[in-house]
Design a protein that fits this description.
Blueprint lengths: L20 E7 L5 H15 L2 E3 L4 E4 L12 E10 L2
Antiparallel strand pairs: 1-4, 2-4, 3-4
Length: about 80
């Protein structure tokens, strides 16, 4: 840990029990994730009779300090449930 320094006081550990979820891969800069989420919510979920069942979360698969913005990869996960 000496190399990384002290953890920031704002650091927290969250546990997710999301159940049924959909996941989509976003390739590109994080600031453009809204386009991918718009496709997920506007196209995929309605086409499969699904609605959101909690907040989405992001899993960063590349280090933005080492990857060019157009090559950054983020898994976007959205808990869902069937439309009743």
């Amino acid at each position: 840990m000496e190399k990384l320094g002290e953890a920031p006081k704002s650091l927290r550990l969250d546990t997710y029990e999301e159940g049924r979820s959909v996941q989509i891969m976003h390739v590109g800069p994080a600031v453009e994730q809204c386009h991918t989420m718009t496709r997920l919510h506007g196209e995929y979920l309605p086409a499969h009779n699904l609605i959101c069942n909690g907040p989405h979360h992001e899993i960063y698969l590349t280090d933005p300090r080492r990857a060019a913005p157009e090559k950054q990869k983020t898994a976007l996960r959205q808990p869902v449930r069937s439309v009743s």
